[in-house]
Design a protein that fits this description.
Largest sheet: 7 strands, mixed
Mean pLDDT: 96
CATH class: Alpha Beta
Radius of gyration: 14 Å
Distance between the termini: 34 Å
EC number: 3.6.1.55
Bound molecules: 8-OXO-guanosine-5'-triphosphate
Oligomer: single chain
Number of strands: 7
Number of domains: 1
Order of helices and strands: EEEEHEEEH
Keywords: DNA damage, DNA repair, DNA replication, Hydrolase, Magnesium, Metal-binding, Mutator protein
Structural class: alpha+beta
Helix content: 10-25%
Strand content: 35-45%
Pfam families: NUDIX
GO molecular function: 8-oxo-7,8-dihydrodeoxyguanosine triphosphate pyrophosphatase activity; 8-oxo-7,8-dihydroguanosine triphosphate pyrophosphatase activity; 8-oxo-dGDP phosphatase activity; 8-oxo-GDP phosphatase activity; metal ion binding
Protein name: 8-oxo-dGTP diphosphatase
Length: about 130
């Protein structure tokens, strides 16, 4: 099975990280994730992330450093997540596709019910900021 390439945004403001909860109707039923989505045929990962953040929240962003990746086998599909640090450039956040969003501190990340593929990214983020 070919892994699906999916991007994820680490958007930090006032030392809080933006996290988003998938809809309860969704396949990952209310799990928390870093916003982003599937890379389309005509774009690279950074272009994908900018597009997804505009579609999901109506915001313009700049895509910065690469954090890392997580490859997770859900059984029916394999997700290859690639995460980047992102800056919010303009536009007020409108929650268009998620159940809700939250701004959480690094230490609060661990208490959320994450999509399984994201657990490794959360750990990488904590390591990046040397919380482990
Ligand atoms: N965006 C995003 N997707 C994730 C994360 N973790 C994770 O397992 N996924 C999975 O990766 C896939 C990406 O789906 P998506 O629904 O966000 O992407 P999309 O907007 O391009 O999809 P669509 O066009 O089908 O609505 C889903 O299967 C989702 O369950 C994450 O942190 N962010």
């Amino acid at each position: 099975m070919t892994p699906l390439l999916v991007t994820a945004a680490i958007l930090i403001k006032n030392q809080k990280i933006l996290v988003a909860q998938r809809k309860h109707s969704d396949e990952l039923n209310g799990k928390w994730e870093f916003p982003g989505g599937k890379v389309e045929a005509n774009e690279n990962t950074k272009e994908c992330l900018k597009r997804e953040l505009y579609e999901e929240f109506g915001i313009n962003t700049a895509i910065n450093d690469y954090l890392g990746e997580s490859i997770y086998d859900y059984g029916s599909k394999i997700i290859h997540l690639q995460a980047y640090f992102v800056s919010h450039i303009s536009g007020d956040i409108q929650v268009r596709v998620h159940e809700q969003i939250r701004w959480v501190s690094l230490s609060e990340l661990e208490g959320l019910d994450w999509a399984p593929a994201d657990v490794s990214l959360v750990n990488q983020l904590r390591t990046y900021f040397q919380l482990k």
